[in-house]
Batch of 3 targets.
Target 1
Amino acid sequence: MRGQPDILVNTAEIELWPHGLLRARSNHDARALARARHVLRRKRDGRYLAADLPEGLLPLVPRLAREPGIDAALDALEWHPGHRRPGIERVGELPLDRLHERLEALGLDDSYGERTGLALVAEPEWLALAGFDRFRRPLWLHTDAARAWRHLQAAAGRDGVVLEAISGYRSHDYQLGIFERKRARGLGIADILAVNAAPGYSEHHSGFALDVGTPGEPPAEETFESTPAFAWLTNNASGYGFTMSYPRDNPHGIVYEPWHWHWAPVDAMAD
């Protein structure tokens, strides 16, 4: 699979990352990653599970065979978007597994979606590398949104405006982790829900949404609206298919987020 575009292959429990984008946490992992084609990464905590070497799979954790989701991940090693015929861009979606389990962990149920008007959002089966975010992390987006983001960013640059990605795709498990970390800092669920959609309901799950910033501005702060970057987005983003999802007084109970932008095909937006 070498020579193929950088692609994250997604399964319910495990992601398959191109080896060169991961940072090793030990010398043992570093040696394995240096020779791997892909690395199996547990979604709920980012733990490296195994390296896909030319001679076979090298476990990086004990009892790999008992790892939840390992069979689906191994099946995914046999399938890769790089094997697709040229020109085929369709990206499937993962089933909405364990949704109730994640909501119950936060004391929520199906009424959350009804109350907020937020739709359930499935994760894509694979995502394309759209560059890197402000923190030098790989930025994963749906393949069409990745292309649109690169065009948008380049157009802003030609006008002397620097746009930085703050974050893109997030899994359901990652979204749950955001809530758990904020609760550990003493925040209540209601306060968190004003800023972060519940797991399963965030636009970030789709790979079509990203948070945008600009150098010198703190990430995900309302002050972004006073920057030339925001003014440029307001005037130009729609031409590239991007719209701001959460304006002031939006009906979803989410705070005003001038940094959060969602991509949809331009023709779909016109319907």
Note: The chain is about 30% helix and 20% strand.
Target 2
Amino acid sequence: MRISDKQLDLVNRQIERLRASNNFYGKRLKEAGITGVSSAEDFLSLPFSQKQDLRDAYPLGLAAVPEEKVVRIRSSSGTTGTPVIVPYTAKDVDDWAEQFKRCYEFAGVTNRDRIQITPGYGLWTAGIGFQAWVERLGATAIPMGPSNTEKQLQFMVDLQSTVICAISSYALLLAEQVEKRGLRDKIALKHGVIGSERWGAKIRQRIMDGLGIDCYDIYGLTEVYGPGIGISCKHNCGMHIWDDYVYVEIVNPATGAPVPDGEWGEICLTTLVKEGAPLIRFRTHDLTRIIPGECPCGSRYPRIDTIQGRSDDMFKTHGVNVFPRQIEEVLALYPQLSSEYQIRLSHLEGCDTMRIYVETDGTQDWADLSEEVAHEVRNRIGFTPMVKIVELGVLPRSEKKTKRVIDERYD
């Protein structure tokens, strides 16, 4: 997707702001002698930025405005290293709310809805992002946050919530609990705005069936506003990205070279109007593709496909690079298997082992099915794992992101 002249003008304003601020990226631009770009080719010569750059800038090295213009601080979780601190100006907060407004409109939300918000609050961007536009819209926000599933279910029933906002793992947990407790006819949910994790067609269908909703896949990340920079429409054929706020490139994860529309690669984002902490060519590690052509909904906003994983999700075993999505693709071939699985890596007697646990609600001979799945995995990745099929509900459920790969080799 070639950058437009209008977007190039906005990038030049960001370059000017960054150089003036002398923040980490402004210094990088000065060192490279870059004062602006005049073409798409020039844009591709701009240096990338990455998560480690943002960590190295801790605490406030991302700021591109004077402190008196900063009205809010957001942060990544910091679970895998130094947290990233992201400052926002008043305009950034308003712009983020406007993007969320579009998301809710695409999801069919109106001022007559009651929106139960289950993602986390605090420094993380999720909960407050989902709430940002609800009140401006005139809808009713129910800011539950994560956990306390008993109260979540109680409020769904008692307050007759019509929209649920959640990460896919927690939406699945809620759907299973609704089914288990026979609450399906007692709730009034219509729509689900789901994001934060990769989730396949099976999980989507189980959530939709369990809660009686249609689902919309929302996209975003803490470093770039937060959730809400894009969402799927009712046709469920990709997520529309608000390209007046962010420019999306898809690049080869290994080389950083742009790939043609329609080919898979890594999302690289440039914020076009963000003031507090502008980012240029930020490598997200999320894997997807630009979907060419027009969407049936008629929206002009470009689309990216469902996130297929992360370039840094890869693990190596038996000398082979393996991505979790490769395992998911195999499991999706078997209708009798559920969407819930877990990969465990161990090192026994001088050799790596990979065990795959997957749930089923089927009744056929599990030993035969395990052997069939193991054989198909070998065809895809080159070695045979141990596959154990377990009953539905045996694998742990999470109120946060579900951990799919557990590496015990170095414990």
Note: Residues 1-309 form a domain with the Rossmann fold fold (CATH 3.40.50.12780).
Target 3
Amino acid sequence: MRRRHLAVATVFLAALAGSPPPAMADITQSEIVSSNPVDWTPHVLDGTVWALAVVGDTVIVGGAFTKVADSSRRTTLARKNIFAFDLHDGSIRSFAPEVDGAIYSLAPGADGTVYAGGAFKTVNGASSRGLTRLWLGSGNRDTSFKARVNWGDVRALATRGDDLYAAGTFTAINGTGRVALARMDAETGAVDQGFDAHLAGPGLSRTRVEHFDVTADGRKLVAVGAFLKAGSSDRTQIALFDVGGSSAQLTGWYTRAYEPQCMKGFDTYLRQVKFSPDGTYFVVAATGRASSAQKLCDSAARFETNRTGEQRPTWVQRTGGDSLYAVAITGPAVYLGGHQRWFDNPYGTDGNGPGPGAVSRPGIGAVNPITGKALSWNPTRSRGVGVRAFLTVPRGLLVGSDTDQLGKEYHGRLGMFPLD
């Protein structure tokens, strides 16, 4: 029988055995992180960091880039689209697989491996479209993992127990039809034949899942993206599934909050979604060019999980016209990243500046998980296009983006805010 979930005891024993189990969702932290980033993280010198993962004491970084430097910037190394460094001192690992396209997603694997998803077609010269499993010690492909997407890219990945979830723009994996979302055997890449979300976007150019998250216990999955239906049910841009069993069971939870159109041309304006560590709620980050305080464009919104029927957000954090792309939830705070200038800005607009009550939060900030209002944490960053990845670790919060100023210091597209 396949193990569907990892019990706490199993996690503990695996860690003692020297084969850390895959990390789960955002972890609970006791306090808000410092606004002063650590000095020892390496730098990505060009492009964009799209994804972060941690396996044991190794941080893996994925994106679209060609060069990295150590924390002192004295040593520069060629690293195309992926590299790794030590979680404790920032030293760059020898891990350097050759990947011919951008990496948009990473997920930790067992036995010193990491899964990578993106827009690539080859890894180390071998065909490996969109999805691969890599050995951290050598950078080699795990050739026993045989998952391949038929088209497009993989934009989000997650491991839970023996399962690997993948989402993106594909319509099949290994020849098995799966539109935008699939579950596979984490060891072999074989598609789970009983799991199919049946997502569809009638009238859209292409159905895609932009992002998803799975609760730490592996029982619920929330997906956001360019879709309008799940099976025969209407689900505009967001759907919640029970996934603890053998199938993707659509829940009775739904919202019409994302039905109103934002700026013309956005087939989806939802960019990232994360569950709270205890799975009782999730937060959605959105772009879309705000045109009305009644819409959820350019906002973050909290929704409760354990409910059924039509739902409205518990709170909405509005930037007043700037995109949010990334979210992390730790208990004391909900961290938000994008290219925003302000928080608490429902009455501000792109052209007219901040409205009454708005507070400056350039590029990164945190809000109260209960009220959604801005917290005082305000490290700042150069805004660029925006933060693309957060990763919570026991020591703090890792940030990946496309600019080189974080917390009023030079940090090339990568940094970490520590817990005090």
Note: Residues 8-16 form the longest helix (9 residues).
